[in-house]
From TrEMBL:
Origin species: Ancylobacter moscoviensis
Keyword hit for Transcription regulation: yes
Signal sequence range: none
Disordered: annotated span: 1-28
This protein's UniProt keywords: DNA-binding, Transcription, Transcription regulation
Domain HTH gntR-type: 33-101
Pfam families referenced in this protein's UniProt entry, alphabetically: GntR (PF00392), UTRA (PF07702)
Family matches, as PROSITE patterns: HTH_GNTR (PS50949)
Name under which the protein is recorded: Phosphonate metabolism transcriptional regulator PhnF
Gene3D superfamilies: Chorismate lyase-like, Winged helix-like DNA-binding domain superfamily/Winged helix DNA-binding domain
Source superkingdom: Bacteria
Length: 264
């Protein structure tokens, strides 16, 4: 998930404030408090006191550097600390934003990403990032009640809320039953709408398993996560009205962007 020049946040070790900074608004030398720490205090106060609302895009690094009268190296140290404190996060190509509260994400008989995100007042979106026909592994075959080696269609998607990546999903379907589903997903950006086109839109959750682990390199790239962050992994089986499995899925959620709620 690289970052733009104006929103990059680095977590490398930093030296003391570099010479040449010309302190501006709200920061001062000779106080015994490093300039970057003063910037953290000012921006944190803006966030906590509501002057910077959740979802607000921060000014660019250049603009913030000019506001505080510091160079961009000093500013990046402040932004790194705000990121570590989970107050802001950078999204590649969009900038750095005040972090929003986690999405309340119910897991129940009908779990639909777009509906859940919309209820939270956020704009859902999704896009296909890959698809292929492959032989079913023993795990996938058991979930879909197929024989190991049978052809399955794999569809990989990334889903976002207000442009912020929330989850990566890998979904497997019986190839003969869901042929061309990947083309429909690419056209609609929605698994549910694609399944509706095939007459399978009223699917129900049959089984859910939830685990957690550190995000791997690919997940960090796609979800715009720094090293050391956690993903929640949801393995699920969805079926039709007769409880015949339609889909086996593995979704990896950015753990600090959602709050899973298990419905009973």
């Amino acid at each position: 998930m690289s970052e733009t020049d104006d929103s990059a946040v680095t977590h490398q070790p930093f030296p003391a404030d570099p010479p040449g900074d010309d302190p501006g608004e709200d920061v001062a030398r000779g106080t015994g408090v490093a300039l970057w720490k003063q910037i953290v205090e000012r921006l944190e106060a803006d966030i906590v006191e509501g002057r910077l609302a959740p979802g607000t895009r921060l000014p660019t690094e250049m603009e913030l550097s000019e506001r505080f009268g510091v160079n961009r190296h000093t500013l990046r140290r402040a932004l790194a600390m705000l990121t570590d404190k989970r107050l802001v996060e950078a999204t590649p190509g969009r900038g750095t934003f005040v972090k929003e509260p986690p999405i309340r994400y119910p897991i129940g008989a009908r779990t639909r990403f777009s509906e859940i995100v919309s209820r939270e007042g956020r704009a859902p979106s999704g896009r296909l990032i890959g698809s292929r026909i492959e032989p079913a592994t023993a795990e996938i075959a058991e979930a879909l009640r197929l024989a190991p080696g049978d052809e399955v269609l794999r569809v990989d998607m990334i889903r976002e809320a207000d442009g912020v990546p929330i989850t990566i999903g890998s979904h497997w379907y019986e190839a003969g039953r869901c042929r061309d589903l990947d083309l429909l997903v690419a056209a609609t950006g929605s698994v549910t709408r694609a399944l509706e086109t095939l007459g399978l839109g009223d699917y129900r959750r049959l089984e859910t398993r939830i685990t957690a682990r550190l995000a791997d390199e690919e997940e960090r790239r796609l979800l715009s996560l720094p090293a050391g962050r956690t993903v929640m992994v949801i393995d699920a089986i969805n079926g039709d009205a007769q409880r015949r499995p339609i889909q086996y899925s593995r979704a990896r959620f950015s753990a600090d962007r959602v709050q899973l709620v298990v419905k009973t």
